[in-house]
Specification:
heterodimer, A: 469 residues, 2 domains, eleven-stranded mixed sheet, seven-stranded parallel sheet, 12 helices, 28% helix, 31% strand, disordered N terminus, B: 263 residues, alpha/beta, Rossmann fold, six-stranded mixed sheet, four-stranded antiparallel sheet, 8 helices, 32% helix, globular, disordered C terminus, binds adenosine-5'-diphosphate, binds magnesium ion
Amino acid sequence: MVKEASPLEIERNVGNFAYPETHTHDAGVGLTEKTIHFISDIKEDPDWVREFRLKAYKTFLSKPMPTHWASKDLEAIVFDNIRYYLSGGTQPKRNWEDVPDDVKRTFERLGIPEQERKFLAGVEAQFDSEAVYSNIKKAVGEQGVIFVGSAEGLKNHPEIFRKWFGKVIPVGDNKFSALNSAVFSGGSFIYVPPGVKVKHPLQAYFRINAENFGQFERTLIICDEGSELTYMEGCTAPKFNTATLHSAVVELVAMKGAKLQYITVQNWSSNVFNLVTKRGIAHEDAEVKWIDCNIGSRLTMKYPGVIMKGRRARGEVLSIALAGDGQHQDTGAKMVHAADETTSNIISKSISIGQGRATYRGLVQIPKHLKNCKNNTECDALLINSTSRTDTYPAITVRGTGNSVQHEASVSQVSAEQIFYMQQRGLTEAQAMSLSVNGFVNDLVRQFPMEYSVELKRLIELEMEGSVG
Amino acid sequence: MFCVPQMSQLSITNLRVSIGEQEIIRGLSLAIPKGEVHAIMGPNGSGKSTLAKVLAGHPDYKVTSGEILMDGENIMELAPDERARKGLFLAFQYPSEIPGVTIANFLRAAVQARMPEGEELEATDYYARLYEKMDLLEMDRSFTSRSVNEGFSGGEKKRNEILQLAMLEPKYAVLDETDSGLDIDALKVVAHGVNVMRGPGRGILVITHYQRLLDYIIPDHVHVMVQGRIVRSGGKELALELEEKGYESYEEVKTTAREPALA
Ligand SMILES: Nc1ncnc2c1ncn2[C@@H]1O[C@H](COP(=O)(O)OP(=O)(O)O)[C@@H](O)[C@H]1O
Ligand SMILES: [Mg+2]
């Protein structure tokens, strides 16, 4: 993990380390209508998708950068310098020998399997675990679950795809959702039929499919009535991405009585702008839950949201953000109550180290005509050393009586005395810090699937080692 | 003390310590051989806690001269955690709270930190030992899942310090005002915990303000510390004398006192 933010110039193909590369389908740098046509041609988009992209491109151009409320650092993104499409078979290749030792050690410490290490380091274009993948596909396929890449989804299942695509998050929601809509490629499409409860979290696919590591992935998940699904995205391994801009859109739909949980653990290298729009719709008695862990990146802006559209719908966002030196985590949650008796819960924990900065933005809307809605918001910030900065901007709009809102916020420090106390027991400074951080997020992490909480704990340890130097 | 080889004692020679412009320890020498219990008594503000923290390597204090040797090795340049792993333990006068970190996890990390690299602590052995020590200190098992010192009473904090002492089995232990905040029953339990730890392989320095603790942890030597110096050393009866007469006489002596000779 590289600590320094990169200089303002955005490098096109080089991430944190260089390697030789070959591209057969390459849209070149910069974004024009031609780029959109190029992408649509290669992907053999149906006409409606091509039009959707072109319209989105215009929206993208017309929208200002949200610097009036968000970080001025966004101005450092030079859209003309970015490469918007690299085709599947053209993932950069390099030799394992060329991967720097510290990167290899990181993989080892995280316990990433050998094959996956190579894949994550960009050594292998396509991580070959077709067997694992097809097993998962077979198991869920027998239940009628559709689980494919988004390109395949829009081609082979247009009747479901089209109905929901761009409906949860309109193209013009923000500048980056418009950008994603114009140039998206990769991501997943999942449909779970009524009453089907998918036992195991769907995850492996994401880890092993190269396309999903794209910059502009687009994911759409629909859980039909009474169904249940847990989806896991990402991996705690640092992504040695070539891309400096990552802008995904994730749309979730939970029909009546469905339960949908979406888990993200992402660890970005510190040159990446990670600007992601995630939102779900929960119909009557349905539940949408986001678990979101953001580590690293130069700037992350992400506010997972839930629109509670049906009676008794529930929305939840549990998030952890860790901002190391020179990093800015601008995260939060959006809860839109649109029916009676809906409940939402937001728990956000942020950790700022050194010059790291964490911002929480929460938006909770409960309109006047609704009855018996509830929101609970908790945001806790932990500062490790005095130069860290944390801000909270909760915007809670509750109208009408009969609705209840609870809001708690806290800021605490890991003090020098605490560290000394722990060191006196034999822990190194880094171990002491990671223990404090793990203690801080402990009650939240306990709700995560076991595997993820273990990875997260290791990741925090690594991050602390890096910050002590 | 000539007979005690350097190799098995914690020795402090001509130590001078400042914080900011203020000199707090002003030429202090002391040796704690393995197998002995020494007590330092002194009025508030005489620099007892400063001495304890300097031994443990607290970064806020500046050692302007002198030497600290542990089993003959100069530990002055070592980080606090290195000193700890080499066998130095400090029971704090004011232990820190660590929110969200359970006692079980904390001690486990501390025990693990003392093991050779690549070796993993066996969970069942660990818990067996932990419960044994907790029983010794009459601590409820539910303590293991409480966050370290968070919301603890003064007495619970002190007990928790001694639990850590018992688990980590250091070569040298410095107990800073372990008696404060304890009622008489708790004091007896804690003193028992410390007495169990006495032995030929361990040197113990008990810092206290009151004589009371020394009724239960009977020291081999007692030192009187006033204004950053040891002004008198003697046997256990010195504690009783101090109890009667107080420190006043020494505070007058301080201006004329010569550097106390150690050996
Ligand atoms: N961190 C500190 N900053 C400023 N002064 C300190 C600090 N620590 C100790 N002192 C001062 O040093 C003197 C000795 O304090 P201390 O070692 O705590 O004494 P004791 O433990 O004997 O009561 C006191 O005057 C105290 O105010
Ligand atoms: Mg003191």
